[in-house]
Amino acid sequence: MSLTERIARLEEELANAEARTADEVERFRVAMLGRNGAVTELFEAFKSVAAEEKRALGQRMNQLKQRAQGRWEELKAKVGGEQESDGLRIDTSAPALTEPIGSLHPITIVRQRIVDVFARIGFTVSQGPEVEDDHHNFSALNFPPDHPARDMQDTFFVQGPGGMALRTHTSSVQVRVMEGQKPPIRTISPGRVYRNEAISARAHCMFHQVEALYVDKGVSFAELKGTLDYFAKSMFGPEVSIRLRPSYFPFTEPSAEVDMSCTICGGPGCNVCKHSGWVEIMGCGMVDPAVLSNCGINPEEFSGFALGMGVERIAQLVYRVPDLRLYWENDVRFLDQFAAAASRS
C-alpha cells in the first residue's frame, strides 16, 4: 500500500473514530499519536519518499497529524462532559493517589532519643546476642546459683548445652564489653529482653531496655547522680527533679531506685504516680567489685557505675500511654499518632 493510500485510510478512520470512556480515548491517542502509532509510522515512512513528492505529501501529512490531534481533543472533551453530567468528572491534573507512608514505631523513637542523650556525653552503643549463656546472663553479674531470677518463672530457658536462655537484661552486653575492653569504658546497650511474666497493662514477656556502664579510675556515686539528673532533664525538661531510694541488685553495691517527679500531675498526685508525686524510672548503682573481678578488671584500680531503664516505661511517661499492650497490637490508628514525633526525631 502506497503512502498516499495509507494517508487516505487514516483520514477515513479519524472521521469515524468514537470513544465512550476515558480509557478508549487514551487507546485512540496511543493508536494514532503514540510512539508506535499509525501517524508516527507514516512520518517514519515519509523519510524514504522521493524529493519531488515530499512537498505535496508533507503538507497532507501535517494536516493529518493536526486532524488526529484535533479529533483526540474532541473525544476527550466529549467524554469529560459526559462524566461531569453524571457527577463522575475526573481531574487528570490532580496528583496521583499514593499509599500511606509508614513511620518509626514509638518505642524506636524513644529508644533513639535515649541513645542520643547519652551519646552527647560520650557513651557509645554496644550490642550483644539475645540468646545468652549462664555466665554472661547470671554468673558474671554476681547472681548466686539459688537466686530467684534463675527460676523458670522469670527466665525463658532454651533447650541445649550450657544453660542457654533468652537474656533477661542487657547487662549481659556490659559483661561482654568489660571482658573484651580495658577501661576507660563508657557504653550503653539498648536491646530487647525477655522474662517469663504474665502480659498485662504494666508488664510484657518481651520488652526493651537501655543500660549504661561507666568504668574508669575514681568513678564516684556523685558522677552517677549527675548523669541521672542530666538524663531526666534532657528527656523530660528542666523542671523535673529526681530522687534516689536504697535498693538491691546483685551486680551493684550500693544500689538505688531512681524516681522522677511526675510529669502528668506535676506533684499533687495522680493515678500514674499512685498519688505520690513520683514515678520510678530506672535502677542504678556502683558496679560491684566482684563483677569487675569476674570480667578481668582490677577493682582496686577501677570503679564504675551502671544504670538501666525500660524503654516502655520511659515511653509511657513521654506519650502518657497507660497500657503497654497497645504498642504491640499494630493498630495503625494508634501508631499514626506518632508520625509527627518520628519526623522530628
Can you offer a commentary on this structure?
- The chain is α+β, with helices and mostly antiparallel strands.
- It has two domains: 3-85; 106-344, Bira Bifunctional Protein, Domain 2 (BirA Bifunctional Protein, domain 2, 2-Layer Sandwich), CATH 3.30.930.
- 40% of the residues lie in helices and 18% in strands.
- It has helices at 3-16, 22-33, 38-46, 51-85, 106-119, 134-137, 171-180, 221-236, 289-294, 311-319, 332-335, 339-344; strands at 124-125, 131-132, 165-166, 185-194, 206-216, 242-249, 252-261, 278-287, 303-310.
- The strands form two sheets. A seven-stranded mixed beta sheet has the order 1-4-5-9-8-7-6, sandwiched between helices. Strands 2-3 form a two-stranded antiparallel ribbon.
- A hairpin with a 2-residue loop joins strand 6 and strand 7.
- Helix 1 runs parallel beside helix 4 (51-85), helix 2 packs antiparallel against helix 4 (51-85) and helix 3 (38-46) packs antiparallel against helix 4 (51-85).
- The chain is elongated and about 105 Å long.
- The chain starts with a helix and ends with a helix.
- The model has no long low-confidence stretch (mean pLDDT 86).
List its salient traits.
345 residues, alpha+beta, BirA Bifunctional Protein, domain 2, seven-stranded mixed sheet, two-stranded antiparallel sheet, 12 helices, 9 strands
